[in-house]
Amino acid sequence: MRGPHNIWRLIRTGATFERTGAMTVALEAMEVSPRLRFAARLLGWPFKWLGLKGDPSLPPVTRAITALGPAYIKFGQILSTRPDIVGPELSEQLKYLQDKLPPFPVAAARATIAAELGEDTDALFSEFSEPVAAASIAQVHYARLKGTGEEVAVKVLRPGIERAFRRDIDAFYYAATWIERLAPFSRRLRPTDVVAHFDGVVQGELDLRLECAEAAEFAENTAKDEKLVVPRPWWDLSGRAVLTIGWAEGIGLNEIAAIDAAGIDRAELGRRVLTLFLSHALRDGFFHADMHQGNLKVAPNGDLIVYDFGIMGRIDEYTRRVYAEILMGFIRKDYRRIAEVHFEAGYVPADRDIDEFARALRAVGEPIFGMEASRISMARLLAYLFEVTERFGMETRTELILLQRTMVVVEGVARSLDPHLNMWEVARPVVEGYIRTNIGPKAMLRDLWRTSRVLSRFLPKLPALAEAQLQSLEQHRQHPRQPRGFGWGAVVLLSCAMTATTLGLALLLAHML
To answer: What's the CA gap between 108 and 156, in Å, rounded?
Structure first.
């Protein structure tokens, strides 16, 4: 229920950050201005005593986030991949949130499995371990299948997690509603829509049957990708609260020292993480949207292992083309073309000045190209980008939230492996390859062929429709006082002609290719 009781939840959030000392640490790490820091402290201080205590053994921000619950942990996981935004020290502390949270008892996991699958764990597995990883929504156990002895990972939802998330999401909805009412300028950012999008993503994560399906689809799409391992799911051992998937042994991408000790080329691995993400987003329109270090491993032979498919992103073909053209514009420093694409896609209101927008984009792009990657401050860059979106009246595009968020996370992961990685240089061959295939004459012919296939489904109905309309026209000619309608006869006949022409042209061009 999104009622006033959520005020208490929001107050307690600020109070918890103040009580744990996280408020000061977070604001300083994100380079917030002294004036805003003072205002935040002033608002939070009177309610400090209402805050949750958290685990005193943890650093302040990690302590506050874990005390507040799973929805806050999700945001913390994103920040853990961005040392260039929150600083290397805080980023390192937040990595605790990826897979090292306190586990729940094994007995509870066994009970969930028995209830979900209809059999005890002893009947299903010859071996079932203590938790090997615990995150905000679920924890993972190592197991061996009874009979075959095959190694698997068994993911089990935390007891009561749906209720915990619902409580947090309701508070977020309440806050977003009041932000829109009290700060009209914020409406272009669509806070309520953003929370609704987050809500939808989380609801998908809470049904492991959906994750099982997405793991299978992702494995299918990436079967031919080199040096990528996607464990296969076991449908008969999975349900709403339980997911069983193949076990993959490797080193976590957050274990930099272990990666170096194994002799794995971190720079090459970082490039591969970024390249694979872009390939999946552009080529398939279906990508892993939670690619923090806790969901990635590297095998002893250097293969990248991807798992945890609870959050997956999809983008349609038109959006992929827009995204590719924007990336290509930055790579080529063609800021005018980037601006044109934004206007063509409707991302910027048509009444704004395209030349001014191109100039603002140049101010974003040029410092990136003129500076060594490790010296770029993403915090300052994102702050300037926010100013640009506000100045040109750009609204938040909810269909792009997962893509943009994942791009930020993936770049952070790649740069944690290679601080000198240049995202644009790595992205260039992937984007150029996509554009060659999907933007241009061949893509236009392919689109025409697809259109003709859709239209061809209606061809069997067109003769009868055309005949009926011709008879209607003849009746009108004989009885002119009879209402003629809206001229649908002409429309149908024109549609017949256009369909036949389009189909014939598409078939001819497809044959020529």
So the answer is: 9
